[in-house]
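// run 5 | inverse folding | seed 20
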């Protein structure tokens, strides 16, 4: 499964950006989809995730500012980021986990996108 992320860029403090990530391949179902981020010199950490049923999890630092959504028909996940802060500056990676069609059956997969840079200037 390939993930193609887009939407990063440079924005001023308080601004907004919307990230998108589309999955492609012989997908059976995407059970879990979302975003991690990695700031320079830091570990990659969860930003937000959403299950196929709509259950969401957010990092405490983004609650109330970021909103994750999915279009299951398009195998696409979005991250609306509002009230951005300089500490949100990072490379944002989308991920997806689920099952793919293999012959007459399925097998599990988990994939990562290539990363998209978000820079918030002060």
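// decoded
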């Amino acid at each position: 499964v390939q993930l193609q992320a887009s939407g990063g860029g440079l924005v001023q403090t308080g601004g907004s950006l919307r990230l998108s990530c589309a999955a492609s391949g012989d997908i059976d179902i995407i059970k879990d989809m979302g975003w991690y981020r990695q700031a320079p010199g830091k570990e990659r950490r969860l930003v937000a995730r959403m299950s196929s049923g709509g259950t969401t999890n957010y990092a405490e630092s983004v609650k109330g500012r970021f909103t994750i959504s999915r279009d299951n028909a398009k195998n696409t996940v979005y991250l609306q980021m509002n009230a951005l802060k300089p500490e949100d500056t990072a490379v944002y990676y989308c991920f997806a986990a689920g099952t793919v069609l293999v012959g007459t059956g399925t097998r599990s997969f988990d994939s990562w996108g290539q990363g998209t840079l978000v820079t918030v200037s002060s």
